[in-house]
């Protein structure tokens, strides 16, 4: 390696080794950018339909927000007490030992974060095609994979230019996202005032050939609120982390709850309860009613921006977990190399991009699915029922959800365990109503783990098998850790 390049790279050894360039505002933008992806544009009809009434639906949205806030309070205590890069990686290592932390880092590196990036990239691609078609361009079939991969490549490139570029891209995308959500709210209010929507709220909503399912409605809502915890991954780069991380988590989650409730009100005002329940794309129908043919283009553009904001936030936060993995385990040492000149982990970002694109190709193409099926065919096992899943978005979501909720549960429990194991630890922020708040959060995670496994079935192996490969890797790559 040339001397100049060696001088521009370093391997961080602790939280103090990172340049603190993220303000409270930047951290809030990361949270909002990751959480508000596409769920609010697609899931409301499913939530209200399974809830049984509009009133019950709003209660579930509010309850989901409160459960998210309970989790945010737990993470606020952990992140303020241990403001190091890696978030859950560090919490789990401190609580259960280095092996558990390694498995989390490996799962994030090989499955969870690339899967989430792939999910959002497919959403971007689908709506980009819809936007271009509505604009008069003919897009060939099968271009979803190309556009999904291209979105990842472009955002990885921006982050390779440094944290300042990455955070400003995040701030701009989040601002554009909020403006788009405001357009939806104004459209709903406008249609409501015009009397277009049937605003009569039916006391009980009857859905053909289905039963009311409170639990399923909660699954949809909690998925819509997912991702706020990723702010803990960049704790070492936040200014005054003991103060700003709790503030960012509470402000971000609270802001998201308000936004979600307002958007659902807009759907109700603009479409009415009956049409809201019948629509699988309420945002598109709402803007179509308000602005005609331009409405389709507007909503597609809003969702494209929203997806890009989620992808960029996941790239920023996920790459920091990879850095921590490289700091502590010699097989992954390259991931910890930090380019001081641009203040970014270049190798971590590149590897994250490559894995994400491989995952996009595996689940989004027939050739990729055949490659996944090949090992199971050898043992005559038909574990994955591809026909049950609509596209790459659905497949990646279902495959990675059980892993996500497993580690989420372990992190929630770690707060309780660390209160006993390390009572002397300085905690600038303490979760209120302890131990009720963390127990409530853990019970939520446990239910979501059960629900995700029940739905995933054999597809859960797609996420589990790569993680299990991490067990022998851990024993081969152990080194003295800094946790």
How would you summarize this macromolecular structure in one to three sentences?
This protein is 72% helix and 1% strand.
How would you describe this structure to a colleague?
Keywords: Membrane, Transmembrane, Transmembrane helix. InterPro entries: AA/rel_permease1 (IPR002293), AminoAcid_Transporter (IPR050598). This is Serine/threonine exchanger SteT. It is a multi-pass membrane protein. The longest helix has 38 residues, at 241-278. This protein has helices at residues 3-8, 24-35, 39-42, 44-51, 54-81, 88-96, 98-134, 143-160, 163-194, 214-224, 241-278, 282-291, 293-328, 346-364, 366-378, 392-421, 436-456, 460-468, 470-477; strands spanning 9-10, 338-339. The two termini are 29 Å apart. It contains 19 helices and two strands. With 483 residues, the protein is mainly alpha-helical. Residues 3-7 and 199-211 have low confidence and may be disordered.
Proportion of residues in extended strands: under 5%
The assigned structural class equals mainly alpha
Radius of gyration, taken over Cα atoms and rounded to an integer in Å: 22 Å
Which regions contain 5 or more consecutive residues with pLDDT less than 50?
3-7, 199-211
Compressed to H and E, one letter per element, the order equals: HEHHHHHHHHHHHHEHHHHHH
Helix content: over 70%
- Total number of strands: 2
Q: What best-fitting shape do the alpha-carbon axes yield?
A: globular
Please count the helical segments. Answer: 19
* Largest sheet composition: 2 strands, antiparallel
Mean model confidence by pLDDT: 81
Q: How far is it from the N-terminal to the C-terminal residue, by CA?
A: 29 Å
The strands making up the biggest β-sheet line up spatially as 1-2
Membrane topology: Multi-pass membrane protein
Protein name: Serine/threonine exchanger SteT
Organism: Gimesia maris
Keywords: Membrane, Transmembrane, Transmembrane helix
């Amino acid at each position: 390696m040339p001397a100049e390049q060696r001088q521009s790279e370093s391997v961080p050894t602790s939280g103090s080794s990172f340049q603190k360039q993220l303000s409270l505002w930047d951290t809030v933008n990361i949270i909002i950018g990751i959480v508000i992806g596409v769920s609010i544009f697609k899931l409301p009809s499913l939530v209200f339909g399974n809830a049984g009434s509009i009133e019950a639906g709003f209660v579930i949205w509010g309850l989901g927000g409160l459960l998210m806030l309970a989790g945010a309070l737990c993470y606020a205590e952990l992140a303020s007490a241990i403001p190091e890069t890696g978030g859950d990686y560090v919490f789990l290592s401190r609580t259960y030992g280095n092996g558990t932390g390694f498995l989390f880092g490996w799962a994030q590196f090989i499955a969870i974060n690339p899967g989430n990036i792939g999910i959002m990239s497919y959403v971007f691609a689908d709506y980009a095609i819809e936007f271009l078609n509505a604009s008069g361009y003919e897009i060939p079939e099968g271009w979803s994979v190309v556009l999904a991969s291209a979105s990842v490549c472009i955002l990885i490139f921006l982050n390779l230019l440094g944290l300042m570029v990455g955070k400003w891209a995040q701030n701009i995308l989040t601002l554009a996202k909020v403006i788009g959500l405001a357009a939806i709210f104004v459209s709903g209010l406008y249609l409501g005032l015009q009397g277009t929507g049937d605003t009569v709220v039916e006391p009980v909503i009857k859905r053909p050939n289905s039963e009311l399912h409170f639990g399923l409605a909660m699954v949809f809502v909690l998925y819509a609120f997912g991702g706020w915890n990723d702010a803990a991954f960049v704790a070492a780069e936040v200014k005054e982390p003991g103060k700003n991380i709790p503030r960012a988590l509470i402000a971000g989650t609270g802001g998201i709850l308000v936004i979600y409730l307002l958007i659902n009100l807009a759907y109700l005002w603009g479409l009415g309860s009956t049409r809201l329940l019948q629509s699988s794309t309420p945002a598109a129908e709402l803007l179509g009613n308000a602005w005609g043919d331009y409405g389709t283009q507007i909503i597609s553009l809003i969702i494209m921006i929203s997806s890009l904001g989620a992808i960029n936030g996941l790239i920023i936060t996920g790459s920091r977990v990879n850095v921590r993995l490289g700091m502590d385990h010699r097989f992954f040492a390259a991931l910890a190399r930090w380019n001081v000149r641009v203040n970014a982990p270049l190798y971590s970002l590149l590897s994250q991009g490559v894995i994400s694109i491989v995952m996009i190709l595996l689940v989004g193409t027939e050739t990729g699915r055949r490659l996944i099926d090949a090992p199971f065919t050898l043992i005559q096992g038909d574990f994955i029922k591809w026909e049950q899943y609509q596209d790459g978005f659905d497949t990646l979501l279902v495959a990675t959800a059980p892993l996500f909720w497993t580690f989420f549960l372990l992190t929630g429990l770690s707060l309780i365990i660390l209160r006993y194991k390390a009572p002397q630890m300085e905690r600038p922020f303490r979760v209120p109503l302890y131990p009720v708040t963390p127990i409530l959060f853990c019970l939520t995670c446990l239910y979501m783990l059960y629900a995700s496994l029940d739905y995933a079935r054999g597809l859960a192996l797609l996420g589990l098998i790569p993680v299990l490969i991490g067990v022998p890797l851990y024993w081969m790559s152990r080194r003295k850790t800094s946790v």
